Amino acid sequence: MSSYQRICLMHYHEIGLKGHNRSTFENRLMKNAEAILAGYPVVTMRRISGRILVFVKEGTSYEDAVEMAQVMAKIPGVARVSCGYICHQDLEEMYDAAQQALADAEPFETFKVQARRNHTDFPINSMDLNQLVGAHLCRHFPEKKVKMKEPDVEVHVEVIEGSTYIYAWTIRGVGGLPVGSSGRVMCLLSSGIDSPVAVWRLARRGAIPFGVHFSGRPQTASTSEYLVDDIAHVLEKTGCIARVYVVPFGDYQRAIAAQVPPELRIIMYRRLMFMVAEALARKVGAKALVTGESLGQVASQTIENISVVNAATQLPVFRPFIGTDKIEIIDQAQELGTFDISSQPAPDCCTLFMPRNPETHAKLDRVLEVEAALPLDEWIPELVASAEPHDYRCPAVNYKKLARQ
Ligand code: ATP
Ligand code: MG
Predict the structure, then answer these.
(1) What is the pLDDT at residue 80?
(2) Does pLDDT of 373 surpass 70?
(3) Is 96 close to ligand 1, i.e. is its CB under 6 Å away?
(4) Looking at the predicted structure, is the pLDDT value of residue 16 above 80?
(5) What is the mean pLDDT of the chain?
(6) What is residue 351's predicted lDDT score, i.e. its pLDDT?
(7) Does residue 271's CB lie within 6 angstroms of at least one atom of ligand 1?
(8) Which residue lies with its CA nearest to atom 25 of ligand 1?
(9) CA 349–ligand 2 middle distance (angstroms)
(10) CA 138 to CA 31: how far, in whole Å?
(11) pTM of the prediction?
């Protein structure tokens, strides 16, 4: 039995993908995947019949192909990934390739063949192909059973544009939209558990995330900055972060702590964080802020406090976790791969100058009154000017153009 060229297929959800939208989506996904898979054994990629076909380098082992497929499955926009083989429109070759594809799908008990013919040049229709390939597989896998309804494995035989694609091994992808199909957002990124996952959630909806991290420096060590950099590297693997601004915030917190009644300090830190984030957002063309807030999780996340902080910005603020339990966020952080990094303790601006009894029901009038005494007109431009940009690799960003912004 000869061995056939290995392929992977990236499938995407087609709902809502019509007309112009569709080709924009496909082009974006292709470009993202090409950049993300640059270090992997890929020969070439092309679009066929509603998916992206990836030719795997000759000689690539099954294990390496699976590892690559697992990376593909994490690229936003990818709904499923299959690994299999390409062969000619020839029945004997199809039998062989189907046999190899089914062997790759072990362990399993039941299977069925699902043939599709996009090309009427091939004389055998899909019903007959199902039967023929099915009968061949039954002979070679006598201990396995054919099951029409919900089998463990489906062997797909697709006759398309002169070739046949055969695959049985399939994994689920993260779904969503390709990064770069929904515009830019500015994410308030701590080294905690929640905000890194919030960034990823927005990326999965097609946004290009930029981050801003407020560090306690020079009042604290820079531990949180290293953790944020590690987190950004995890997000970078699938193109889910473009740049992170690190803003040394310690001196400003100290100044706030010296002038603002203790119970209002956190609110004041957070309003200032939002104002700086908004200024940075405008600089890079981001049209919304993102936080990892979850209702009632900590004192600053009551409805009253959220609205008082929200009033510090004109931009919409997206909080993907507002109704999510911590346990669920932790599960997602583990899946994303940021949980262990986020679990390391780091003093950041949130641990600095913390009051014992923070206000939980802040009133905007009172906060504005206190805030009026702070030199925000000086502070905001100073903080924006001191923001240190760190770039990560996001295929949807033109970094030369960004440098001029
Ligand atoms: P997280 O796990 O994301 O840190 P949290 O449960 O610790 O969240 P808070 O510390 O109140 O909650 O922070 C709420 C949100 O404010 C965070 O999700 C993040 O978006 C933002 N934030 C908090 N601290 C910082 C920081 N040092 N720099 C940037 N953003 C921050
Ligand atoms: Mg935190």
Answers:
(1) 96
(2) yes
(3) no
(4) no
(5) 93
(6) 66
(7) no
(8) 190
(9) 9
(10) 40
(11) 0.93
Ligand 1 neighbourhood includes 223 CB (under 6 angstroms): no
The pocket of ion ligand 2, defined by CB under 5 A, consists of 190, 192
Identify the pLDDT of residue 361: 86
Nearest-CA residue for ligand 1 atom 24 is 190
Give the atom of ligand 1 at the shortest distance from the alpha carbon of 215.
Answer: 27
Give 66 Cα–ligand 2 centroid separation in angstroms. 36
Q: Is the peptide bond before 261 cis (omega within 30 degrees of 0)?
A: no
Q: What does the CA dihedral 169, 174, 179, 182 come to, rounded to 10 degrees?
A: 130
Residues 150-179 pLDDT 10s: 999 999 999 988 899 999 999 999 999 999
Query: Which ligand 1 atom is at minimum distance from the Cα of 348?
Result: 27
348 CB under 6 A from ligand 1? yes
Atom 8 in ligand 1: residue holding the nearest Cα? 194
* pLDDT 10s digits, 316-360: 999 999 999 999 999 999 999 999 999 998 876 566 677 778 888
> Does 267 score more than 70 pLDDT?
yes
Residue 314 banded pLDDT, cuts 50, 70, 90: very high
Asked if residue 320 has its Cβ within 6 Å of ligand 1, the reply is no
Taking the CA of 343 as reference, the closest ligand is: 1
